[in-house]
Amino acid sequence: MAQKVAVLKLKMMVDVKAKKVVFAESGKEFVDFLFDIMNLPLATVVKLLNAKDMVGCLGELYKSIETLDTGYFEGNQNKDSVLKPSTAVVVPLLSLKEFPTTIKYSKCKVPAHKCISDYPSAICPVCRSEMSESSFTYVTPKTSSSNTYVKGPATYMVMDNLAVKPMSIALIKSHVEDFDKLEEKEVQVGLQEGLAILKASFETDMVLTNVFLGKKIKGCKPSSS
């Protein structure tokens, strides 16, 4: 059965004449998603957005690590250590889950010595014999759901540049000069939109306008691996 992808709703206030999102009215779920973005390792972000479509040189760095011969890595490291960093962040909107990580290590053949090392063929400091290589699977603590950060059922104002503020009448008035120019627009935020928001956040300070009112952002297809 295919995994059900999370979908959030967002109510935006749009300046029709300027064709710009002034702000979005959001519940805690969308704000939690934005906060999750701040916790993502950089390598995970590059993988999610597809390295070949990244602005700047991070995509090229990612691809060069992918193609680097494993012989250049230290004995206790591999490509996954860099490209697939362990993280407890679960982001349902991006279909991002934590997967178990296999860790290699060396241990003394004499259990009573209780000596281990993250280097292959290390020497036991007790008996001076070469340790044997082994491995174990590290699993991050299981959580029942994604991380939550802000309280509900409060309503939040998310600006076009993704700045988050508690919603208030005074705050709305400080950002809106003429309410007659505004039009309410409700949108859905799923996997595709979530990736577009993530990508646009590296490229512009008009994220919501670009994602929901502008042209589609290139390179936002889900990664195949």
UniProtKB/TrEMBL annotation:
Origin: domain of life: Eukaryota
InterPro entries for this protein: DUF674
PANTHER family: OS01G0153900 PROTEIN (PTHR33103), OS09G0544700 PROTEIN (PTHR33103:SF19)
Name of the molecule in the record: DUF674 domain-containing protein
Organism, as annotated: Spinacia oleracea (Spinach)
